[in-house]
Amino acid sequence: MSRFLHPAISIIVFLIAWEVLARQGFVHISLFPPPTTVLFAINEMMLSGELVRDFQASVGRVILGFVFGGIAGVVFGLLTGRVQAINNYLTPLVQIFRPLPPVAIIPLVIVWFGIGELSKVFSIAFAVFFPVWINSHIGAKEVPQVFIWGARTLGIKGWHIISKVIFPGALPFIIAGLRSGVAIAFVMVFVSELAGASSGIGYQISVSHLAYRIDRMIGALFILGFMGAVSDFLLIKLTQIFFPWLKLIKK
Q1: 113: phi > 0 → left, psi -120 to 50 → alpha, else beta; which?
Q2: Which homologous superfamily does the CATH classification assign to the domain defined by 33-242?
Q3: How far is CA 135 from CA 87, 95, 166, 167, 207, in A?
Q4: Whether the model pTM is above 0.85
Q5: What element of type H or E holds 4?
Q6: Cα(190)–Cα(217) distance, integer angstroms
Q7: What share of residues in the chain are helix, strand, coil (percent, to 5)?
Q8: Lowest mean pLDDT among 156-165, 188-197, 199-208
């Protein structure tokens, strides 16, 4: 019970402090709206159908980008972590691209793929790939060699070594990478929707900025943050369902 009570208390205290501060008039209320005004703005977007449309658009892009980037990151991370020949050829190439800010490639991606869904999904997948890859790579390297020898003694060979020994051993690192990837995915969906989108939470923030609707901007930002927090929570729950033996770090 306290696991939910303590966060609830901190959120309530934060909202009350925000409401009181915004009502004091230090900053004009249109520039720093209180949470009650933001709540009305969210309700306005919901009644007009904008919120549902933008929510569905952003969630769809995040899911596709996260799945493609996450799968690629896990597969390449396990291979570079345990197969020396692959590591020698691929890791230097990945390390060249890893320091690049994912936001910086968006203009190039738009030139290549246009302003449609493909460019947004690719941008998200590109950003998600690197934290998942580096964690999977390190996790695969951390699997004790004695586990590999034991598996081979029992007759496990080839790709079964990766699926039955290395992957389970690297799973805590992989989950850490996926959780980082979730957060980055929501950053990238916001940025990608600023460049040539007609729907999405990022698009809603951009349009609200042009209309000088700060309440709608803050409301959309809260929705984006809520989506990210829920996604991280669901990722943990799914991990507990599919890998109940894994001891996850307590939140």
Answers
A1: alpha
A2: MetI-like (1.10.3720.10)
A3: 14, 13, 13, 12, 37
A4: yes
A5: helix 2-23
A6: 12
A7: 80, 0, 20
A8: 156-165
What is the C-alpha R_g of the chain? 22
Mean pLDDT across the chain, nearest whole number?
87
* Those residues with Cβ within 8 angstroms of residue 46's Cβ, 6 or more apart along the chain or in another chain: 52
Digit-coded pLDDT (tens) for 120-134? 999 999 999 999 999
Helices (H) and strands (E) in the chain, counts: 11, 0
**In contact, 81 and 170? CB cutoff 8 Å:** yes
Tell me, what's the pLDDT at 68?
96
The pLDDT tens digits for 43-64 are 999 999 999 999 999 999 999 9
Structure tokens that stand for 153 in this block: 């003694």
Q: What does the alpha-carbon distance between residue 27 and residue 40 come to, in Å, rounded to a whole number?
A: 20
- Selection from 134, 128, 125 nearest residue 170 by Cα: 134
Residue 185, Cα to own-chain centre: how many angstroms? Answer: 4
Cβ distance 214 to 40 under 8 Å? Answer: no
Q: What tokens does 197 get?
A: 């989108």
